[in-house]
Predict the structure of ERIP6 protein.
Amino acid sequence: YPSGNLAIIVVRETKRFICIVQEDKPNNAGIQAVFQSNGRSTCYHPNGTVWININIQGGQYLDQAGNRVRTWTWPNTAASSGPHVPLSPIFISLNRHVGVRILGQDKIAVSFLAMGQQAKFNVGTKVQVSTVGQLPPPAQLSEDHLLLLAFRIRIRRLFDKLHGCLTFPSNEQWDKIKPPAYLTTQALKIIHLCMTSDVSEEVRSLVRAVINA
């Protein structure tokens, strides 16, 4: 962003790519959108509720209260039931600098405009399925692995805060110490992995609690 804050992150995870759009904040920036090369993507309203949710079958558009406004199915998807609902083009602005355009499963673009310059990221993908039973399973991480990653983030934050306390002995400065940006980014990625992994809600809550402690 013109402020210097990180706007878009592209992460490679084995054979998948993940594109993350962040808020224009220096610390603890919230996620505004996540696009995955496996056909699953989500955009969020400013209040944090899901705005657009996409999978390899189709997608849905929701308002800020969580009410479904419209749904669609991709033309190459054999839905288990119900008629085929085509996509009407979608254009949304996540913030004043980042917009999303959805014209098709492989025609999804994130555009970034600032200071008279523009960058575009094609985050669409073409995933064909013949039946719902043949949908490829999402990448899985074990509960122990997710908890280990969460505790690693927490330990690194504690070490960073300890270093800050040694640098600024005054108690008045301790609450002003913020974690490094790379730890915040890793924490957001772990929380997202929890949402895409087949683990219990109890484990997801525990991972969030460990990271946010």
Summary: The radius of gyration is 19 Å. The chain has two domains: 8-122, 143-212. Residues 8-122 form one domain.
